[in-house]
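Example (one chain per record):
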Amino acid sequence: MNVGVAITLIIVALVVGLGLGYLCCWFFQSKAMKKNRQAASELAKKAINEAATIKQKTLLDAQQEVHQLRVECDNEIRERRAEIQRMESRILTREEQLGKREENLENKELALENTRAQIENTKRQVESNLQAAQKKKEEAVTKLETLSGLTKAEAKKLIIDNLTEEAKADAVKTIREIEEDAKENADQKAREVITNAVQRLSTEVSNEIMTSTVNISGDEIKGRLIGKEGRNIRAIEAATGVDLIIDDTPDVITVSSFDPYRREIARLALEKLIMDGRVNPARIEEIVERTKKELEQNCRNVGEHAAYDARVNGLPSEIIKHLGRLKFRYSYGQNVLKHSVEVSQLAGLLAIELGANEQVCRRAGLLHDIGKATDHEVDGTHVSIGVDLARRCKESDAVIHCIEAHHFDVPFKSLEAVIVQVADAISASRPGARRENLENYIKRLHDLEDICQSKTGVDKCYAISAGREVRVIVKPDQVSDSQALFMAKDIAKEIESKLQYPGQIKVNVIRETRATELAK
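Predicted structure:
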């Protein structure tokens, strides 16, 4: 009973508590809502006032901007109107000028029409005068033909022949004057330059033969070199590529070969075998191989020495090796290495005199015959071989061109190329530099005389001064003085194109008439 009452009281207390709580919440909520309404009302009034202020300010700014735009538009309108007025005035002025020009053009057209009419009248008058002059000319020609007894073609030919002879005589006179002037200046200067270069360079001239000799002490060494049934001498000849002559001269072995390089290897190998005393095929091959290596090194030393004498620096090792091998090459009996050094020195001296590139001239002069070091081993001329070697060793284009042009294989493109060719000709053609066998010498003299004798009007011709000069005597009744001058030039050109010769050949054409009478 008490428990039920207690539960009922608890439930009643809870209901009453909930009701009181709800009433309290409602009371406080209604009071807060009232305060919010008042605050919102005040904020709305404040916003309305601010909006009114902003509206008023915006209206004032808009009015001011509109006023400013109106002022600017008025100013622009005034400027445009002024510009339009100026353009209208210019157009009016231009129209007036065009009107005046039209009037001038009309006046000029009238003047041109009058001038054309005058020209047509003048043209008709000139044609009439030309016809009259042509008629008079024909009458005069007919009268001249009648008086002279010559036709027009015959008279024209006679006049042309006379004018040709006069022109030839004038041409000969002019040519002689030009040649004399050139000789007075160019020859003197060239003579000074070449003389100075040659005088400053002094080299010895020596000719070597195609054999070398090795001295031996007696028949015992000779027997060892020959060997049993000649096997040792055959081994030496096979290893070196030369011919050995032992029996002709006592105590001397002769080494014969057209290749000086092989001949030198054989000579050095024989000297080592004689000093060693052990002579057999195996020892021979060993000595020959060692000699080849030593000679190869010697060639490098010789090449470096030649480059030093020529004052040429920076040569590649391959070119140095080929340069040294030129010591064992000969051209017409002239040592090619000595010739190359001499050409280099001459070219350098000439370059200084003429203001050319001295280093290019010296380098090209030293290397111009480098192809002769291997021309017997490689196909092609020594010029093409030398050009290929220079290109392979990265030589400059200027040096390569000098090598390529020194025998006129290509046209000269630089002063240095001409200098190298001249230096080559000086070194090869000076007295004693080269030798020529009797057969070739006589053939060259006969060829010279045959070229001269083939010309019309030649009476006699003689090759003199060892083929350095040729004298041609012509028939005076067939060859005039002017024709003699042209004949000398033709002979010189034909000699240049057909013959190979060192230096230069002087051509003298002689024409003379003699009057003989006896007084009785």
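Caption: The CA atoms of residues 13 and 19 lie 10 Å apart.
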